[in-house]
Amino acid sequence: VALSAPLSARICQLNVELITIGDELLLGFTIDTNAAWLARELASFGVAVTRKSTCGDNIQEIVDTIRAALDRTGAVITTGGLGPTADDLTNESVAKLFDAEMELDQTVLDHLKALWTSRKRPGELPQANYKQAMIPRGAQVLKNNYGTAPGIFIEDKSGRWVATLPGVPSEMRGMFTESLRPILTERGSDRAKVIKSRTLRTVGVPESMLAERLSDLGQGFGGLSLAYLPHVDGVDIRLTSRDLPADEAEHALQMGANELYNRLDDIIYGEGDTELASLVLEMCRKGNLRLAVAESCTGGMLGGQITRIAGASDIFHGGLISYDNRVKRQLLGVLDSDIQEHGAVSEPVARQMAKGIRIRLGTEIGLSITGIAGPGGGTPEKPVGTVWIGIDVAEGRPPIPRPDGLPPITPFQEARLFHMVGSRDEIRQRSVQAALEFLRRSIASLIPSHT
Ligand code: ATP
Ligand code: MG
Hints:
451 residues, alpha/beta, six-stranded mixed β-sheet, five-stranded antiparallel β-sheet, binds adenosine-5'-triphosphate, binds magnesium ion
């Protein structure tokens, strides 16, 4: 059987192996996010990861694992084990492997002392930290701008190298980007084929319907592959280029994204890690619209999602968790007769909740969610997953000016019925996304750039 060349050999010039170090990783208490992040980052500028391994906090294990990787690939990046404690053994292991003495690095020591003082720690730098200033002779220090542990880059006469990065993900990412990445880019050719992708985010349309709308594109087009990534908050569509140098990949992705925007403009709400809540807040900001929410089955998740976004306070005034019917009646003014006649999960109740919270908080928009998250509480007419979302829009109290050139707000009210699937928590999360998406669509005409 003729085997095709490995993927990595076809697409990339520089190959590396990743080794993540730590007993906690082997025990499964820490999830190895470092290796995943590094693999994606490296691919983005043409470095392929050919193997990932994990070993425990033990010098012999670390030495053996790195040696085997060097014999295979000649290029190794490790994470973890750079701290001051007895189980942090990585640089020592590398010194052993490269047959290099450990030496005190004065610059590193000064950095550690300065950090100790600037963090207002009591007394002198502990002896344990001096260990972190011991660097194998001949190694280049990778500075840690986010913590204490320095990494190293060390190379032998035949050009085989090891780079060590810290275990703490934020420190690891910072050191990689600021110190190691420049070294690697210098080594790779800039015509290297890279893996680049672009992710367009959609909400409210099931994966199967999206795929139908894009069926003629198959698994890819224009040299790009096409992937559907469903999550509880919606379906991401990812375009990936694997066979082109960076600039050409960028161009191909732009063409691909244009094509998708042409077909799906109404349901793509953003790219990359854009959150729907942040987009909606931005729209409200442009339209001088203030927001309040009333939630039943989501119990504060909608407000939580909105307040996760920094700077939400100028738009989002607050909300009420109206879980009990008495709260819906007494604090939101929902009519008891409607609750009796239609139930708490119903169109009139969703409408009155939205209106009630809008009037009480004096905002331009009131948004409400009332539904059955399960697992109990469903009936044949209203099964688990039945969710009503309401919106109520009118001028706020006190009124604020409309953006230039836009007419005054014409009051409107609307409620929509959704049928969510999944576990209790998925139903609740999907309800939050649906409410934000409903809001996005409802206010589009009140926003300058959307008119
Ligand atoms: P420290 O100075 O904190 O000891 P270190 O470089 O020695 O840093 P480790 O002790 O190996 O790093 O790990 C510190 C913490 O970083 C771990 O408790 C864990 O939370 C996280 N961590 C370590 N390795 C990984 C990994 N591969 N993926 C994700 N998180 C990790
Ligand atoms: Mg440690």
